[in-house]
Amino acid sequence: MGSRYGGLKQLDEVGPGGETVLYDAALAGFGKVVFVIRPDIADAFEASIGARARRHMEVDYAFQRLDALPDEYAPPEGRMKPWGTGHAVLCAREQVNTPFAVINADDFYGRDCFMRLASFLRSTSAGSYAMAGYRLENTLSEGGAVSRGVCSVAHGRLQTVREHTGIARSPFGLIEGNDGTHTVSLAPDTVVSMNAWGFPAEVFSDLARGFSDFLAKPEGDPLKREYYLPYFVDQQIAEKRASVSVLETDAKWFGVTYREDRDGVSAALRGLHEESVYPPLA
After folding, report:
1. N or C: which end of the chain has fewer CB atoms below 10 A?
2. Residue 265 falls within a domain, yes or no?
3. Owning domain of residue 120
4. What is the 3-state secondary structure (H, E, C) of 70-87?
């Protein structure tokens, strides 16, 4: 449920032709999708999204359950919140046995993102990851402030990802955000992560180890703390367990963080139809 959006935005059709991001993924060469969802929305999701996705590729499901934990752990009493994006990917380990990409189900990444990820994954190996890197100015919301993973990149390799919150244009046109300590100015071409990643199948063993380490450290609110995928990647880099290629793209990212974003995204997708990026509307 999207609390800022005010509904289950993954099932809210935005594109004028009823298209999904999987159209671009299929054109890039991806042949299978695994949706990681809550069990209680499975039927609605299949009717709205899954059935359409089957026109383009094989479809499978993995369920992110609160009790999907190592044997020695149990969910804290009163916890309702999922365990985060790192845990979500881990929940799909039984459905995935080849190199794969990870995206948010409610974001529009642009075809170039999928093309770059697919090309990388055709020749990746254990310990070799990829991240689609977007220009910050191409990821802002007109509806309000956003959070972004601000990246440090050297020689095409990701060094760190640091979450910045409250990112928005100031009244003077500058882009500002909070780095966790104070307000900072951010350049328009700052590379940010939009959670579009490429991994080898071997990543699951490291992800399981990292999640167990996370559970063993009782830091933060036990009812709310989450194991984020960027945190896992950051740890892998710091421990020299992985190298992450940054696949920079000039693609425009669209998302519906706020309901006010919906009309703008819908208009942008209609424009892509008119430019013949997508099949013309009937």
Report:
1. C
2. yes
3. 9-274
4. CCCCCCCCCCCCCCCHHH
Q: Measuring CA to CA, which residue among 69, 4, 60 is closest to residue 31?
A: 60
Go through 224-241 and write b for each residue having 16 or more CB atoms within 10 A of its CB, e for each that does not: ebbbbbbbbbbbbbeeee
- pLDDT tens digits, one per residue of 179-220: 989 999 999 999 999 999 999 999 999 999 999 999 999 888
In a domain, 282, yes or no: no
Q: Does some domain include residue 281?
A: no
Beta carbons within 8 Å of 195's beta carbon, 6+ residues apart: 85, 102, 103, 104, 107, 149, 229, 230
**3 found inside a domain:** no
- The rounded distance, in Å, linking the Cα atoms of 244 and 161 is 11
- DSSP-based three-state secondary structure for 152: strand
Adjacent-strand bridge partners of 244: 129
Q: Give the ranges where the chain is alpha helix by DSSP (H).
A: 22-28, 42-45, 51-53, 85-90, 111-121, 203-216, 229-238, 261-274
Q: What is the CATH number of the domain that holds 184?
A: 3.90.550.10
Q: How far apart are CA 142 and CA 210, in angstroms?
A: 36
CB 247 within 8 A of CB 128: no
Beta bridge partners of 169: 175
Distance (Å, rounded) from C-alpha 187 to C-alpha 225?
A: 30
Q: Which of 265, 96, 273, 266 is nearest to 197 (CA)?
A: 96
* Tens-digit pLDDT profile for residues 80-105: 999 999 999 999 999 999 999 999 98
Q: Which residue, 94, 45, 37, is CA-closest to 65? A: 37
* Amino acid making up residue 64: Q
Residue 258 one-letter amino acid: Y
Structural domain total, the chain = 1
The predicted model scores a pTM of 0.88
